[in-house]
Amino acid sequence: MKEEERILCLDHYEHGIVVHALNALRNDLIGEKRPTDAVDELLLKTIEAPYQKHKRRSHHEAR
Fold this sequence. Notes:
Blueprint: H1 12-31, H2 37-47
Helix pairs in contact: 1-2
């Protein structure tokens, strides 16, 4: 069975919130001496996520 992929569109501010929240979770897990493997992978995916440019209509384009 093919694994489904989800795409989440975030602006710069929202992306920062997610990165900081994941890093805080990672720090808490380290403080509790629990494994951080899953959070590490998700944090790297979030940081390295590609940008997607939005196509915008020009002012001269007919609607």
